[in-house]
Design brief:
alpha/beta; Rossmann fold; 15% strand; 10 strands
């Protein structure tokens, strides 16, 4: 299910037992789910597509592909030496499916990747280490859920610790970043955003015209891989429900 209309329909189903979301994010659904209904999210469906977009956003700003696209209508040959991803330090905040998928893809670019989760474990640094990690990071990618602990986590203090010219990529949720703080740092820092706060971003919002900012319209998971993967998940969930096996990706039960 997705969209307010779908949740309105759900409230009219007195015998409903399970609600399956097609998205990894679920915060928008919590107010709508009736008591006693099991809520499952779509974790895993968007991992590959969102990780692909994150790589694309990184390369877009490092290699200034967006600037080149803007120069094309002017017939301008924007020839210069731009940043490579090779040898860069990349911090991926979020050690779930998307973060793991992104790390696998970045390994082929010969960059140094650090994965950050809530707590430290094998191959993952703790979120408490972020203040130190971002000091030397060339690229910081946000791929974590939006909750009370992450809302406006990327604030003025966070951004001020990032070095000049560093790139922040957000493929998570817009509410994780303080938009006003981002506008203040635009130009000193670079930003590649698939999500914003507010969203959709009003046409007259200054973020559209801020220096060093590239925005895509929340398309991380909106690819040709989406429907087949949703179909596989729903089929598996129905089979589990019919056989009495535990459902996948249970958020509320």
């Amino acid at each position: 299910m997705a969209g307010e209309w779908a949740f309105e329909v759900m409230r009219g189903l007195p015998h409903l037992e399970v609600c399956q979301l097609p998205t990894a994010g679920y915060e928008h659904a919590l107010p709508w789910v009736p008591a006693g209904v099991t809520l499952c999210n779509g974790a895993g469906i968007h991992d590959a597509s969102t990780a692909e977009l994150a790589v694309g956003l990184i390369l877009t700003r490092l290699r200034r592909l967006d600037d080149m696209a803007r120069a094309m209508p002017r017939g301008e040959f924007l020839h210069d030496r731009f940043d490579a991803l090779a040898d860069k330090s990349v911090v991926v905040v979020g050690a779930g499916g998307i973060g793991q998928a992104l790390r696998r893809r970045l390994e082929g670019f010969e960059c140094d990747v650090v994965l950050v989760g809530r707590t430290a474990r094998d191959g993952v640094r703790a979120r408490d280490d972020l203040d130190d990690l971002i000091l030397e990071a060339d690229v910081v990618v946000l791929a974590l859920p939006l909750d009370n602990s992450s809302r406006c986590m990327v604030n003025a203090g966070f951004l001020s610790r990032m070095k000049d010219g560093a790139l922040l990529v957000n493929v998570a949720r817009g509410g994780i970043v303080d938009t006003d703080a981002m506008l203040t740092e635009a130009g000193r820092l670079n930003f590649a955003l698939d999500v914003t706060d507010p969203e959709p971003l009003p046409a007259d919002h200054p973020l559209w015209r801020a220096p060093g900012v590239f925005i895509s319209p929340h398309v991380g998971g909106n690819t040709s891989a989406f429907l087949p993967r949703v179909g596989h998940l729903v089929t598996d969930q129905v089979q589990r429900w019919q056989s009495g096996d535990p459902l996948r990706n249970v958020i509320v039960s």
